[in-house]
Fold this protein.
Amino acid sequence: MDRLKGRGVIVTGATGIAGASARLFAAEGARLVVISRTESSCRDLVESIEADGGRASHVVADLTDGTAAQAAADTAIERLGRVDGLFNVAGGSGRRVGDGPLHTLTPEAFEATMRLNATSHVSVSAPVLRAMLQQEPDVDGLRGAIVNMGSVLASRPVPELFPTHAYAMSKGAIASLTAASAAYYASRGIRVNMVAPALTISRMSERAAADEATQAFSRRKQPIAGGFIAAEDVADAALYLLSRDSRSVTGQTITVDGGWSIIDAT
């Protein structure tokens, strides 16, 4: 249980996949800073990590605000001293701001959904990358690793259940960002990868989890998981991508989907 022993890691978000990941990273020895917009969620997560003997602190920031996001990242970097890993999790559905089929999508809904997902990744990653570029390489000759949060919906749409086109586009943008940045920073000793979950147990999925049609779909389409995927399963994939176990892996996506992408069960 020491795959991240002594390593400084930033996690954005404090519940669902972010919470499960932060707890796992701490159990694996990481020094953590959690960044999220909800004080109570941050506090509860950090307290639970510390109660289990882990090391963590938090910074409260609205990551859809680029200036606030970069300031929060700078604070986290200062606390850690050295940043070995970043897991960009914060984001969510744009339904509440009007995301939907393209012909109904307003510019305001589109922009809000992109800020929620893609902009938050860019705003936190930029200062982290600047810090990593200034760091001495570790024993593997690397300066750090970033894991981004994608979605199976970016490449495997389900129009009858998830007609959220801005969300799909935002996750597709993150996939492109992952590939482009992985290529650029590879020669500089920084790895960039992505995890792409399917339906996962989280606050974001509460609406879907309450819908019997979506539950039935998940049981058909995600048979390995028997329905919705546990957040801890996605955390395990992120741990691999941040640890030395994946030191020769960059520009890749681990799709954690319980079978979604290979099962024809629509």
